[in-house]
């Protein structure tokens, strides 16, 4: 059951609604083989249902059969008219002959699943400038239920050996999104490969996304986002200052599905990553003013007493 999260927002004066929960999950080689594992797919479904928007990375699905299997499972027994029904938007393969295609060794898609009666997609583009192994997919969302009405999500899955350069270049992707939509409510999320293995101490000085005060890292260094025994903070959520105003303070977290579902070693079959998540503040409206009470009718004036007879 989703917790109400409008505490501290003058409950006596405001309507309380639920927050919008956003997640990012690297499913690690999510292709035909994994999609045929009943246990894995059931677990993925349970995780997806936690969120109103979830970014899935690691989707290796040129023919879209894997994606369709997941959509069918997630929406099973959910009416299309239901607010719980999911829709999707995914990145397309780059066209043949694209200069960036020669630089890519991965053919992964980014996939956003979202509850379409709670949020809607207003636009998208793939950042095709050089510098990324898996070019970021950028989506503009709109919601009537959040304090931030329109916001941009930038998905990223960096190449481990180029993590420092790619994380740094995300500043340029943010700038491109701002230029396209004139919107400063921006969130960058996904597998940054920003653990100590790939981003070492002095490397942080080279990363504009880390050193620019306009960006706030909601999943901090030292938080374990991996299923493996080693502790690494690969997966991140970073927001602009404007976007941070619409985030529920303290809501950014790692969802440890291994512990939540008591999976132990089985968790590795699902992924070597845990999802990271955050919540957006709900739209709050002042309670309607009570109808004014009708003014009391004036009391009738007393009739004059009759004069005594002479």
From TrEMBL:
GO terms for molecular function: deoxyribonuclease I activity; DNA binding. Residues 1-19 form the signal peptide. Gene3D superfamilies: Endonuclease/exonuclease/phosphatase (3.60.10.10). The keyword Flavoprotein does not apply. SMART domains: DNaseIc. Belongs to the DNase I family. PANTHER family: DEOXYRIBONUCLEASE (PTHR11371), DEOXYRIBONUCLEASE-1-LIKE 2 (PTHR11371:SF29). Residues 274-292 have a biased composition (Basic and acidic residues). The keyword Membrane does not apply. This is Deoxyribonuclease. GO terms for cellular component: nucleus. Residues 293-310 have a biased composition (Acidic residues). InterPro entries: DNase_I, Endo/exonu/phosph_ase_sf, Endo/exonuclease/phosphatase. The active site is at residues 108, 157. Residues 274-310 are annotated as: Disordered. GO terms for biological process: DNA catabolic process. It comes from Dissostichus eleginoides. Keywords: Endonuclease, Hydrolase, Nuclease, Signal. Residues 24-273 form the Endonuclease/exonuclease/phosphatase domain.
């Amino acid at each position: 059951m989703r917790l109400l999260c409008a505490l501290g927002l003058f409950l006596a004066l405001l309507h309380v609604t639920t927050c919008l929960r956003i997640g990012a999950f690297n499913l690690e080689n999510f292709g035909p083989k994994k999609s045929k594992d009943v246990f894995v797919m059931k677990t993925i479904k349970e995780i997806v249902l936690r969120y109103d928007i979830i970014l899935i990375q690691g989707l290796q699905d040129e023919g879209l059969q894997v994606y369709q299997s997941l959509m069918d499972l997630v929406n099973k027994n959910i009416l299309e008219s239901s607010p719980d029904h999911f829709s999707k938007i995914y990145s397309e393969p780059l066209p043949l002959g694209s200069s960036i295609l020669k630089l890519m060794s991965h053919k992964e898609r980014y996939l956003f699943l979202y509850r379409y009666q709670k949020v809607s997609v207003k636009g998208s583009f793939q950042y095709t400038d050089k510098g990324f192994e898996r070019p970021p997919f950028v989506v503009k969302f709109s919601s009537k239920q959040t304090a931030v009405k329109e916001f941009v999500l930038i998905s990223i899955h960096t190449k481990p050996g180029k993590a420092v350069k790619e994380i740094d270049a995300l500043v340029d992707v943010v700038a491109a999104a701002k230029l396209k939509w004139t919107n400063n409510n921006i969130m960058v999320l996904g597998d940054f490969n920003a653990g100590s293995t790939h981003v070492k101490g002095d490397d942080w000085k080279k990363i504009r996304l880390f050193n620019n005060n306009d960006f706030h890292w909601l999943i901090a260094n030292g938080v374990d986002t991996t299923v493996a025994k080693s502790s690494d903070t690969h997966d991140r959520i970073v927001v602009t200052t404007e976007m941070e105003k619409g985030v529920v303070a303290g809501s950014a977290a790692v969802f440890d599905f291994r512990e939540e579902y008591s999976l132990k070693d089985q968790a590795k079959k699902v992924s070597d990553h845990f999802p990271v998540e955050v919540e957006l503040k709900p739209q709050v409206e002042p309670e309607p003013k009570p109808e004014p009470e009708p003014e009391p009718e004036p009391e009738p004036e007393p009739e004059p007493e009759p004069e005594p007879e002479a």
